[in-house]
Specification:
The complex is a heterodimer of chains A (163) and B (712). Chain A is mainly α and 163 residues long. Chain A has 5 helices and 2 strands; from the N terminus they run H-E-E-H-H-H-H. Chain A has helices at 2-21, 54-71, 95-98, 103-112, 132-145, and strands at 38-42, 45-52. In chain A, helix 2 crosses helix 5 (132-145) and helix 4 crosses helix 5. Chain A is elongated, with a radius of gyration of 25 Å. The relative contact order of chain A is 0.13. Chain B folds into 6 domains: 3-36; 39-145, no CATH class; 167-192 and 421-491, Immunoglobulin-like, CATH 2.60.40.420; 203-372, Cytochrome c-like domain (Cytochrome Bc1 Complex, Chain D, domain 2), CATH 1.10.760; 511-589, Cytochrome c-like domain (Cytochrome Bc1 Complex, Chain D, domain 2); 602-710, Cytochrome Bc1 Complex, Chain D, domain 2 (Orthogonal Bundle). In chain B, 30% of the residues are buried. The chains are: A mainly alpha (163), B mainly alpha (712).
């Protein structure tokens, strides 16, 4: 009887010792803004800062070069051309309009222009100027700032979780 | 204990033996157990489990091996085992944000991970096989991983030239150069320009001792602790070029005394025509006429002024020259006239152009500056300094060298200082043990050190001579990125071969053009063959783009081309001869090979082509969304009302075919026009002339119909 107690205690100690040898895995949950490539303040709420992934950060750069002139109410140069256009182009954070469209549609309207997609001809085609990757990143940026974020339709939930 | 008792196996000895053999076995088992529990093996197993949940499991585990995965690039000193855990890094199907780390794919970049490894960009310890050792800095391994916020620094380690994909790095480099950091520090790729800060050899003839005292105590541009910039108390955007030095009262008195006696070369006062002075002195409109001329000359393209509109005071204007709101209370009026006539006579390297001012303009504008751009309270709070004493002057001279003033400012007879501050050419590659943290409580790593030093130099070293800057967060991060990119010369020859050098460009015209070009300092705002400022359009191919007569007319009377641009070409009062010299040079030399003048014959354009072009412009392609013709249209592209007089047909044709071939970074999208459409649009645009009034009613009706038709 005594032997079993001794043996059990010893086994437990050995296991505990072995477990202690293993270093704790990194579990620091960092501020999401610290691991972001870039950030963009929510257009409706400057206090809310949206962290951007690498692709979205690339999209932000292209947006502020090419798209901001008509798809925002203020531009790096000051006034916006948006009020000048009929029909008025959607703001890039207009989630009601943009989140109703699939990524594929968004990429097409940037690449092929408004006419090809049955919209206003005032939207020029960028397919010969921007690469497919650049257009994808602009759409990714749109998804980041049209808050709350776009949810792709009918995609199975990932069953895997890190925990 | 007796002998026979010793050989006897008691229950007690049996127990001891059993326990010790179990212990022995257990100790033996620890080693394989520990090996099994290794961190990286756990990640390998969980990768397999994770791959089972993905639809393309087969592809994900096709090359799976249970051992350590390593990228070994001997020439580049890379031994990176990161891919052991980051196993999905090249699997395109794992790019989604929902994929948990460490299995997510690397975002697409121009470099292949297998060819470059990971630590070249991300830093950290490549050979490590534990998460903490790979990512953090330990006693043995000092390079922690680079926070993603500063990742553009790694691009800059090899790409000395600016990349479009790295705006933060470009901004940081521009800040380093723009704030004259190279005055005191050695910085790779940032050259010392001919003039960093004004030459002070004759500063005593320009300003008073009291003004110098005030300026040293509180430079005009002030940045508060939140990073808000004010110039003369008005909000502005730019960081100050003259930083705030921590000076005591005695030091202020000494420096102001020394500087106020710098009058080596007294200027010769210019005598304005007595008739002009007599005619205008009594005129009540003198100041308002002066202001009008000031505006007409577009001084505000380079200089800013505080303007109050709707109760809100803002600085409006450029930042090439100093802000002028209170300059009337600063400078000696006689000096001002001499300066405006010949700026290079006072400062040989100044970027201020030599304008062709008439005596009348000079009198009006200087009176306007001296009476309206003033502030009676500018020097309040400055004590009565009186005549500088000899001991004050001697102290000032010593301080001028000790405080590092001579690193940026020149005074004739004083040796210019170089490398006053530490060499920063390898700052980005420093190990933590090489940094001095002093009494500060910041985390011990390079990024924290750089940011602490930039924000408050005295926090890490109380004896720091570096002046006090205040940054907003984006600028602080940008400048940190630029400093992190400076890792010194690459350690191996294979890495040296990867360096993409900065293209050193220069533009040295000669002859008559050079004389005019230097006088008007065209390069302050315009670029020629990559050399010059970026405030105004690049003129490298201006001769292909614009018609000669238009260039001449524009130079004589610059007008609005782009409605949204606030800063406009100044009125140089250019003579016909100067304008012709510039226009001839441009049309002869500044040509683009893609715009072939013989390819388009404007005489062959027919009325039908023009009509088709107009229809394409207004209906099919709706160019009016960005361009204005005759008062209607968008603000994004240039106004085309005068395109027929302004642009050459060859340029229009080449531009329509491929705008980026002519101007690589233009935002005009490249369209898929047919050859007929290009010809028709060219024909239409060449008919647009300001002299002929566009048919307003017809075009607006057509556009109305167009928007109705293609609206949705």
């Amino acid at each position: 009887m005594k032997f079993h107690v001794w043996f059990g205690a010893l086994l437990l100690m050995t296991l505990a010792g072995a477990a202690a040898c293993r270093k704790n895995a990194e579990s620091a949950k960092a501020d999401p803004l610290l691991s972001a490539y870039d950030t963009e303040a929510d257009w409706n709420d400057a206090q809310h800062v949206v962290p951007l992934s690498f692709q979205q950060a690339q999209g932000k750069r292209i947006f502020y070069q090419q798209c901001v002139w008509c798809h925002a109410d203020s531009t790096p140069a000051g006034p916006s051309n948006r009020s000048n256009l009929t029909p008025v182009p959607p703001l890039l954070n207009d989630r009601a309009t943009l989140n109703a469209e699939s990524d594929e549609y968004m990429q097409n309207i940037v690449a092929l222009g408004g006419t090809a997609m049955g919209k206003s001809a005032m939207m020029p085609p960028y397919g010969r100027m921007l690469s497919a990757e650049e257009i994808r990143s602009v759409v990714a940026f749109t998804r980041a700032i049209a808050q709350p974020p776009y949810q792709p339709p009918a995609r199975a939930e990932s069953q895997y979780s890190a925990k | 204990m007796s002998a026979e008792e010793m050989g006897k196996l008691t229950n007690r000895t049996r127990l001891v033996l059993a326990v010790s053999s179990v212990m022995f076995l257990a100790v033996l088992a620890i080693s394989p157990f520990k090996d099994f529990r290794r961190e990286w093996k756990q990640y390998k197993h969980s990768y397999l489990r994770f791959a089972q949940t993905r639809p393309d499991t087969k592809k994900l585990v096709a090359d799976y091996r249970p051992d350590i995965d390593q990228i070994w690039l001997p020439g580049m000193n890379v031994v990176d085992r990161c891919t052991t855990c980051h196993y999905g890094i090249t699997q395109a199907s794992l790019a989604d944000q929902s994929v948990p780390q460490p299995f997510r794919a690397h975002p697409p970049i121009p470099h292949n991970v297998r060819d470059w490894g990971c630590t070249i960009c991300h830093r950290g310890q490549g050979p490590a096989t534990e998460v903490a050792e790979a990512h953090k800095s330990t006693l043995a391994w000092e390079q922690p991983i680079l926070p993603t916020r500063f990742i553009q620094a790694s691009c800059g380690t090899c790409h000395y030239a600016d990349l479009p994909q790295t705006p933060q790095l470009t901004r940081g480099r521009a800040l380093l150069a723009g704030l004259n950091c190279q005055g005191c520090h050695r910085l790779p790729g940032v050259e010392r320009p001919a003039m960093l800060a004004p030459d002070l050899t004759n500063v005593g003839t320009k300003v008073s001792r009291e003004w110098i005292y005030k300026w040293l105590k509180e430079p005009r541009t002030i940045v508060d602790k939140d990073g808000n910039v004010t110039v003369n108390g008005y909000e502005a955007e730019d960081e100050p070029r003259m930083p705030k030095f921590r000076l005591t009262e005695t030091e202020l008195r000494g420096l102001s005394a020394y500087l106020s006696v710098q009058k080596a070369k007294a200027f010769v006062s210019y005598k304005l025509d007595a008739r002009v002075v007599a005619a205008w002195t009594k005129n009540p409109e003198l100041a308002s006429q002066g202001e009008l001329r000031f505006r007409q000359m577009f001084c505000s393209t380079c200089h800013s002024l505080a303007v109050t509109r709707a109760g809100e005071t803002k600085l409006i204007g450029g930042d090439i020259g100093p802000e002028l709101t209170k300059v009337g209370s600063k400078v000696n009026p006689d000096w001002l006239i001499t300066w405006l006539r010949d700026p290079q006579g006072y400062l040989p390297h100044t970027r201020m152009p030599r304008y062709g001012w008439s005596d009348e303009d000079l009198f009006k504008v200087t009176r306007y500056i001296a009476t309206k751009l003033t502030d009676p309270d500018l020097l309040t709070g400055v004590p009565q300094l009186g005549q500088p004493r000899e001991d004050e002057i001697q102290l000032g001279r010593r301080l001028f060298l000790e405080k590092g003033c001579a690193s940026c400012h020149v005074i004739e007879g004083l040796n210019p200082q170089k490398d006053f501050g530490p060499d920063l050419s390898a700052i980005g590659g420093k190990n933590t043990s090489e940094l001095e943290f002093g009494a500060s409580k910041i985390p011990h790593n390079l990024v924290s050190y750089i940011q602490a030093k930039l924000q408050d130099p005295a926090s890490v070293n109380p004896a720091a001579r570096m002046p006090q800057y205040n940054w907003n967060q984006p600028d602080l991060d940008a400048i940190t990125t630029a400093l992190l990119s400076m890792k010194g010369a690459p350690p191996t020859s294979a890495l040296q071969n990867l360096v993409v050098p900065r293209k050193e460009v220069d533009f040295h015209p000669t002859g008559a053009f050079e004389e005019v070009y230097e006088r008007y300092k065209c390069y302050s705002c315009h670029k020629f063959n990559g050399y010059g400022g970026d405030l105004a359009p690049d003129l490298t191919y201006e001769g292909s783009r614009a018609q000669r007569q238009w260039i001449v007319d524009f130079l004589k009377n610059p007008q609005t081309l782009r409605p949204t641009v606030v800063l406009r070409m100044p009125q140089f009062n250019m003579s016909g001869r100067d304008a012709a010299t510039l226009a001839d040079y441009m049309t002869m030399v500044l040509q683009h090979p893609a715009a072939n003048p013989t390819a388009v014959d404007a005489k062959q354009f027919t009325l039908a082509m023009v009509a088709l072009g107009k229809q394409l412009y207004e209906v099919k392609y709706q160019c009016q969304s960005c361009h204005t013709i005759g008062g209607t249209g968008g603000y994004v592209g240039p106004n085309l009302s005068n395109a027929g007089d302004w642009l050459t047909p060859a340029w229009i044709e080449a531009w329509l075919r491929n705008p980026q071939a002519l101007v690589p970074d233009t935002i005009e999208p490249r369209r898929n026009f047919t050859a007929d459409e290009v010809r028709a649009l060219t024909a239409y645009l060449t008919t647009l002339r300001q002299s002929i009034k566009p048919q307003k009613t017809a075009s607006t009706t057509a556009k109305h119909a167009a928007t109705q038709g293609a609206g949705r």
